[in-house]
Amino acid sequence: MTPRFARFAAIDWSGAKGARHKGIAVALCDAGQAVPRLVPAPGGIWSRQAVADWMIDAARTAPTLFGFDFSFAPPFVARGAYLPGDTVPGDGRAFWAYVDAICDDADLGAASLLEVAHRRHFYFGKADGVKADFMHNRACEAHYKASGGGKASTVFDAIGAAQVAKASFAGMRLLHHVRPHVPVWPFDPLPTTGSLVVEIYTSIAARAAGRPKGRTKMRDAAALEAALTALASAPHVGPMPDDHGADAIVTAAWMRTAALRPALWSPTSLTEEIARTEGWTFGIV
Q: What is the average pLDDT across 23-51?
């Protein structure tokens, strides 16, 4: 079964501390070929809570596929636990509730989980020891690498500009809050109608749009135009967005075409255990 959606939203996410985040961008497009448009943030800059509120409202308005670029759960299958040695739940939805319960960070943040509650599991620098000992991956990330997609980031790497660790755990708090309103694939089965949340990887969208490996960021109008053309989208109108906005625009256009491919909804390596504990990145087959 291939679900049908009227709209497609890609959210470039941020786990940064604070209440407003310039790293968040939301792009939305309708079915067809209209170019994705950036959704203005309330007050000019998005908060994570504002994204959750907007999303819940948008999901009620029309069947929408929402894509977020963070890891929906830590690795589980390879080690039999999310945080081995610590007492935490053993499935994704319960783990989201746990993360939300122990984090009192502003705006659905989760830095305290990394820095205090479960500090020993995260790599912040060489004082923590050998970095390779922390670099655990989910099944979909291992599959992506083995198929030539490249090395995916891990939620245990807490250094670097991308801050994938903080972004992911903050995202898990968001998932806990929005799931009563919108199902989350593949933790929830594909709905026959209505809206749905999926995990996306903006680099997959950029590669599908013709961007070369290692150069997936689009920072000029020509690159953005070429990517949209490759995805059968109308051209972007207006000023060139920043790289977060460009990522969101191209990814929304890619989601519109990718959602029609049945194989992407039935990855060959996606088992019931993986779906329940780790989830899967939409677009990895």
A: 96
Owner of token pair 């809050």: 177
CA distance 210 to 194: 31
CA–CA distance, 228 with 207 (Å, rounded to integer): 12
Is 41 within 8 Å of 28 (Cβ atoms)? Answer: no
Residue 261's pLDDT is what? 96
The whole model's pTM is what? 0.96
Question: Residue 99 carries which side chain, given as an amino acid letter?
Answer: V
Which element (helix H / strand E) includes 12? strand 7-12
Cα–Cα distance, 205 to 238 (Å, whole number)? 22
**d(C-alpha 142, C-alpha 210), whole Å:** 23
Q: Residue 165 and residue 83: Cα distance in Å, rounded?
A: 14
Residue 1: per-residue pLDDT: 61
Give the integer Cα–Cα distance in Å for 233 and 10. Answer: 15
pLDDT digits (tens, 9 = 90+) for 168-210: 999 999 999 999 999 999 999 999 899 999 999 999 999 999 8
The domains of the chain are located at: 7-72+176-265, 92-174
